[in-house]
Amino acid sequence: MDTKKLVVGIDIGGTNTKFGMVDRIGNIYVEENISTPFYRVFDDYINAVKDVIVKLEKNVENAEIIGIGIGAPNGNHNTGAIALAANLPWTGILPIVAKLQKFFPSTCIVLDNDANAAAIGEMIYGGAAKMRDFLFVTLGTGVGSGFVANGEMIYGHDGLAGELGHVIVEKNGRECGCGRCGCLETYASAPGIKRTVSELLSKSNEDSVFRHKSLDEFEAKNITEAAQNGDKIAIAAFRITGEILGLALANAVAITVPEAIFLFGGLAKSGNFIFEPTIAAFERNILKFWKDKIKILPSELQNKDVSILGSASLAWNSINKGSL
Amino acid sequence: MDTKKLVVGIDIGGTNTKFGMVDRIGNIYVEENISTPFYRVFDDYINAVKDVIVKLEKNVENAEIIGIGIGAPNGNHNTGAIALAANLPWTGILPIVAKLQKFFPSTCIVLDNDANAAAIGEMIYGGAAKMRDFLFVTLGTGVGSGFVANGEMIYGHDGLAGELGHVIVEKNGRECGCGRCGCLETYASAPGIKRTVSELLSKSNEDSVFRHKSLDEFEAKNITEAAQNGDKIAIAAFRITGEILGLALANAVAITVPEAIFLFGGLAKSGNFIFEPTIAAFERNILKFWKDKIKILPSELQNKDVSILGSASLAWNSINKGSL
């Protein structure tokens, strides 16, 4: 009987570390969870991760683990290390690939950050399956991105490329967590659209459900609900967000010219409220020979388990390239 | 006796088509020129190009032509065709690679646009020799660019990627030849800095040599001379140009994170007048983990025959990859 070739996708979050055994077409066989902060010492955590992988392999009949993909905040593909991740319990540089490789010396092990893992996930399991040039953008707590060109993720010289969220879109704009002002992330993320609602409330006399709430009390998804109920402030906030995002995407396209742009994350779930103004601004700001040629699409991983699939896809992508 | 393996670099301009036989390390053996507009029919031009190549090979003892690299306005690497080049005498899509390949069926023939050819030239013969990630920017009549990531030029889905000059840097900014407003090219090119001088003259009462000339009468290089002579308007024009260029480069870096950025062309020849304000703005606008890490350098091809070397490098780059 043939063995079932699978990879383990590992998503390292500040609260949980999630594991899943995944095949080439995205079926998830078994899953497992461990607490990330339970392990104060990084080597203890590595031992626990190793134990889960060994256990998972035993749980699927005839399974053979041929790869391990790891998505982690600040995971660096080039170095195989996690560097200075603010929401993980360990400090400094964490060479997770080298440490796991000692336990699994002949297994392909790949690390990347969450946004790149999701982008590779779109390429292996989603809408970018046959594309060699695309852009994947996550609109969540922040704005993350992965640029794929010539069939390869653009990692840059230091492995940290693809920071579309930190392109400056407004000179002297909003304060960003990065210490600068005017980054795309301060406008096109979930907190960014809340800031836009706040700005609109200050400028306009229009009534809105958000006049009666503090910024702490509402979430970005409430803005979608309000827009659906016809709240003019909410609708205007989406329009402004889309205008800024559309211009930023048009500028990024001038550099990399993708076949398509995939939007993912909380804001992307708002559907046409965000897609319509984004596409309109994108088409208005793009060079004429790209007009109506570059698709802006919702990610096909939006309603799937992207953390497991994205991580697993890192290993499959690496295995695919090795077999070419 | 061993044959001397050479490539032919061909630079197609609106006035002349230049040819040179070039070895792997950038020695140019023989050169030749033909008039481009002399050939009204594209097929006649192709025949003339073929004849020159055959003649060149005979002129160098023991030479073997193993590649042909062609740099041309609107040359598309992906399709091997020149499309709608405004300053060439032929209309429509010109499949130059396919047509030449018929005469030289076993020779590697590569087409690209001028800016990409110069960028590959920097990689094969210049300062980017050992770099896998760099950005090459030409500051001339327009602003051209070539982005190399993972050792490969980013061509994008349609072969037209790398249009840094058409990133919009000022909303509702200066009118651009592309039909939009605020493109980097309207500020950081030779005509762009002239426009900045004009703007400064309107805003300030400062005396300047340019108060006594029409825009037609002076060239960008006169602005360098004036700056050297202490003309405050000229110096301010460079500072403003550098500020806009530095921010645009910082934003591009957030996407591709090159090891270095090479500046080439007329404006780059102005030395510290352009480099100092550009580097200052770049460092001020860049994400903190890239501060002081990415070099902005003058192109090492600046005083060489870049049109021949850039075109020749296209063939060498392709041959190098084939032999890996």
Question: How does this model look, in words?
Answer:
The structure is a homodimer of 324-residue chains. Chain A is an alpha/beta fold and 324 residues long. Chain A has two domains: 4-122 and 304-322, ATPase, nucleotide binding domain (Nucleotidyltransferase, domain 5), CATH 3.30.420.40; 132-298, ATPase, nucleotide binding domain (Nucleotidyltransferase, domain 5, 2-Layer Sandwich), CATH 3.30.420.40. Chain A contains nine helices and 13 strands. Chain A has helices at 42-59, 96-103, 114-125, 185-188, 190-203, 220-228, 232-256, 272-285, 306-322, and strands at 4-12, 16-22, 28-35, 63-71, 75-76, 81-83, 93-94, 108-112, 134-139, 143-149, 152-153, 260-264, 295-298. In chain A, helix 1 (42-59) crosses helix 2 (96-103), helix 6 crosses helix 7 (232-256) and helix 7 (232-256) packs across helix 8 (272-285). Chain A is globular. The interface between A and B is large, with 42 and 42 residues.
